[in-house]
Specification:
The chain is an alpha/beta fold. The chain folds into two domains: about 1-130 and about 275-335, D-Maltodextrin-Binding Protein, domain 2 (3-Layer(aba) Sandwich), CATH 3.40.190.10; about 130-275 and about 345-365, Periplasmic binding protein-like II (D-Maltodextrin-Binding Protein, domain 2, 3-Layer(aba) Sandwich). It is built from 17 helices and eleven strands. It has helices at about 1-25, 40-50, 60-70, 80-90, 110-115, 140-145, 155-160, 160-165, 175-190, 195-210, 220-225, 240-255, 285-295, 300-310, 325-330, 335-340, 350-365; strands spanning about 25-30, 50-55, 75, 125-140, 170-175, 215, 235, 260-265, 270-280, 315, 345. The strands form two sheets. Strands 4, 5, 6, 7, 8, 9, 10 and 11 form an eight-stranded mixed sheet that branches. It has a three-stranded parallel sheet with strand order 2-1-3. Helix 10 (about 195-210) runs parallel beside helix 17 (about 350-365). Bound molecules: pentane-1,5-diamine (N2P). Pentane-1,5-diamine (N2P) binds near residues 34, 35, 80 and 276.
């Protein structure tokens, strides 16, 4: 009798254990590096019971390769605008179910409208953050070398004789052909969105002249390199440069030494405005959880916490109520009308043009 009872109890327990396993809900997220407040992820799991498996990338090309190959294993991805558009064209993204994202009502209409150029009807993506590509610098080291010469100009980067002045304090550039080539074109006075082989070659020739001064083409290491004083100049992303500034301050507070002063300049000739948006691959296994995740991220307080942590503008308008004043009033993060006029956008490269871009960029990076 006793034995039978024990068997029954044991069976009930293992059933409960099985049920718990069956109920464990997961969402696999693939986001840019340094792009979220980690506490927000913990809070998401606490509140929803959904575990987050979180991986990071620092290049659209890496993301695109994985997603186009299929079975990436990711449920939520965050491509930039032109890559988003190519994924839509390749039919690898799911149409979102707006009824499952009620917080969409907090989206910033102006940003949603701009994003529609890449995602017609805003059917596949919700903007997470947006920002610009400009010049990050170590204030002290740049002043030593430049005096009062203005910093907010591509002349600083794309005139070989200027760039050479910073070689001995360290220069990084993004490993992002689709951002560096348009910036070089802008400097040359050519349409940054040009798809002409001759123009792309011209940008490539200019970058070839500069490459010898560049310590590294890399899209995430510059945050710590700037903060740690290993480099003094970078062509990089706005928020990442402000994160470098924060890290330098935190390190200084710990050691009691004066902080390395870091700042970001938007070149007056014009800078790229980009949009990184949540999307769900068609072959995602946790579609329900992916919608819950996106909806959570679109909660104004949550969106603001992420913006306060990473220093990029949120695609969430309502979030602005909760964004730190220092960030909201920073014109390089939340541009005013005059600053907006300086920003340009680009359209995707067709496959044949992409081949030219990739060839030119490989040459710039390798020197051959
Ligand atoms: C995050 C950088 C994301 C900006 N570290 C690239 N669009």
């Amino acid at each position: 009798m006793m034995r039978r009872l024990l068997v029954a109890v044991a069976a009930a327990f293992s059933l409960a254990a099985l049920a718990a396993v069956a109920q464990e809900r997961v969402v696999n997220v693939y986001n840019w590096s340094d792009y979220i407040d980690p506490k927000v992820l913990e809070e998401f799991t606490r509140e929803t019971g959904i575990k987050v498996r979180y991986d990071v990338f620092d290049s659209n090309e890496v993301l695109e390769t994985k997603v186009l190959a299929g079975k990436s294993g990711y449920d939520v991805i965050v491509p930039s605008q032109t890559y988003l558009n190519r994924m839509i064209q390749a039919d690898v993204l799911l149409k979102l179910d707006p009824s499952k994202i009620p917080n969409l009502k907090h989206a910033w209409p102006e940003i949603t409208r701009r994003l529609a150029t890449y995602d017609p009807g805003n059917a596949h993506a919700v903007n997470y953050m947006w920002g610009t590509t400009g010049i990050g610098y170590n204030v002290g080291k740049i002043k030593e070398r430049l005096g009062t010469t203005p910093i907010d100009t591509w002349n600083l980067v794309f005139r070989p004789e200027n760039l050479a002045k910073f070689k001995n304090c360290g220069i990084h550039m993004l490993d992002a052909a689709d951002e560096m080539i348009p910036a070089a074109l802008k400097f040359l006075g050519i349409d940054p969105d040009s798809k002409k082989t001759a123009d792309i070659e011209k940008a490539g020739a200019l970058l070839m002249q500069l490459r010898g001064n560049v310590k590294k083409f890399h899209s995430s290491e510059y945050i710590n390199a700037l903060a740690g004083g290993e480099i003094c100049l970078v062509v990089g992303w706005s928020g990442d440069i402000f994160q470098a500034r924060n890290r330098a301050k935190e390190a200084a507070a710990k050691t009691g030494k004066p902080a390395v002063e870091i700042d970001y300049a938007l070149p007056k000739e014009g800078a790229l405005m980009w949009f990184d948006s949540f999307a769900i691959p068609k072959d995602a296994e946790h579609v329900e959880e992916a919608h819950i995740f996106i909806n959570f991220m679109m909660r104004p307080e949550i969106a603001a916490r992420n913006t306060n942590f990473v220093a990029y503008a949120s695609g969430n308008l309502e979030a602005q109520k909760f964004v730190d004043k220092e960030i909201l009033n920073n014109r390089s993060i939340y541009p005013d009308q005059a600053t907006f006029k300086l920003l340009y956008t680009v359209t995707p490269y067709a496959q044949d043009v992409q081949r030219v871009v990739t060839r030119v960029w490989t040459r710039v990076k390798s020197g051959r």
